[in-house]
Amino acid sequence: MQIGIFFCAKMKKIETAERLERVGEYYFSTKLREVRGLIAQGKPVINMGIGSPDLTPHASVVAALNEAMNDPSAHQYQSYQGLPELREAMAAFYAKHYKVSFDFQSEVLPLMGSKEGILHISMAFLNPGDQVLIPNPGYPTYASVANLVGAEAVLYSLTAANHWEPDFAALESTDLSKVKIMWTGYPHMPTGAPGSLALFEKLVAFAHKHQILLVNDNPYGFILNDNPVSILQVDGAKDVAIELNSLSKTFSMAGWRVGMVLGKADFIEAILKVKSNMDSGMFYGIQKGAIAALQLEPDWFVAQNAIYAERHALVFELAHLLGCSFDMKALGLFVWAKLPENTQPAEKFIDEILYDKNIFITPGTVFGSNGEGYIRFSLCVSAQKIQEAIQRFKQN
User: Fold this and answer.
1) Among residues 243, 268, 293, 276, which one has the least CA distance to residue 93?
2) Long-range contacts of range 54-58, CB-CB < 8 Å, 24 or more positions apart?
3) pLDDT over 80 (residue 246)
4) Average pLDDT over residues 13-24
5) Strand-strand pairing, 334-338 and 325-326
6) C-beta atoms surrounding 293 within 10 Å
7) Residues 349-388: pLDDT tens digits?
8) Three-state DSSP class for 364?
9) Which of 383, 71, 326, 331 has the alpha carbon at shortest distance from 186?
10) What is the tens place of the pLDDT at every residue in 178-206?
11) 187 CB-near residues (< 8 Å, 6+ apart)
């Protein structure tokens, strides 16, 4: 006997959550799919668009991970707070390089990458209808996450004329009554503006005045920079500020997904409440590798930056061939270049280069409307590949 089930009524469509209507797919997710398609067709694409370090971690870091595999607890669930020795290494790293002291038991929280932290912080502090100050240009994830949690993204303008730093007079003239969080980060991504303790002092004073949680995103502090600074070096910063940091760029460990958030215990406890409901702890071996990385001596940074400095100079040469202007003193993992006047829109400009020269460069508009007229080159490309890109332009 055959048994069948028949639906007489029209099936109800399963709708996605309304929050998805407020965000689009991440630009690099869609664009890199396009780039991979070109590569699959046999196109010799040089990817200068994304900041995924191509250098490898220090040998001692990999050795620590491998050795950890023999530990009986390596394959078990781990603490939501991470190993105590990892938190202690993170606190020691800040004490050594930034001269800021933290209680590793309560003021340091390891993360599976700082991008995870952006979501956890937002979920811990934002209610629907709260407003968030987000830099324009800036990291697109800040706005995406604000929208996902039902908060309102309020852009604050950064311009070359103001050295890509906030215009505090303009901020003070804004209605800040609903603002709960302000995102900032120096060295700035994408522009490479260095920032300074003087700027951080202004930001902390602004946050105190308006009772805003200031979140400083600081993953580029050691790239081409001999003077890394933290916002938590400012007196009184811990009362209104927390800082995200990452091992991805500093130690060439992007795929390992290791980050951290530091701040006073009350803030960290709130973030942990979210995190403990979202994951089951970081892989033991990765934590052990991260400890080894955080303990590396200064010659690690010197060696990495010698490589990036060579690439920096070559990217300047390439940008010059495109008629771009740029700040040779900018820091971080990218070169932010202004297109010549009367050039077509940045996205059209880079698409023509992608299909004509098989070189992918990021349009500045990915980072906000103030990125129009700019493009961003990544230094995560070998000197040989950058030289090849230069030759492709010189041949015509």
Assistant:
1) 293
2) 54/380, 54/381, 54/382, 55/252, 55/304, 55/307, 56/252, 57/251, 57/252, 57/253, 57/256, 57/289, 57/293, 58/251, 58/292, 58/293, 58/296, 58/300
3) yes
4) 75
5) antiparallel
6) 23
7) 888 998 899 999 999 999 999 999 999 999 999 999 999 9
8) helix
9) 331
10) 999 999 999 999 999 999 999 999 999 99
11) 193, 194, 195, 220, 221, 223, 225, 330, 331, 332
pTM value is 0.91
Decide if 134 contacts 183 (C-beta within 8 A).
Answer: yes
Residue listed under structure tokens 């990892």 = 86
Residues 320 and 317: their CA atoms lie apart, in Å, by: 5
Q: Residue 72 is encoded by which pair of tokens? A: 């009986």
Q: Say how many Å lie between the first and final Cα of the chain, rounded.
A: 75
Contact between residue 317 and residue 48 where contact means Cβ atoms under 8 Å apart: no
Q: Strand (E) positions, 35-161?
A: 46-47, 108-111, 131-136, 152-157
Q: Position of tokens 């200064």?
A: 298
Q: Is 163 left (phi over 0), alpha (psi -120 to 50) or beta?
A: left
Kindly write down the DSSP assignment for every residue of 214-226, as one continuous string.
EEEE-S-TTTT-S
Nearest Cα to Cα of residue 133 among 141, 142, 121:
142
Q: For residue 322, what is the DSSP state?
A: T
Token representation of residue 237: 């910063």
Which structure tokens are listed for 300? 């690690």
- 243 contacts 262 by C-beta, under 8 angstroms: yes
Fill in the amino acid letter for 54: D
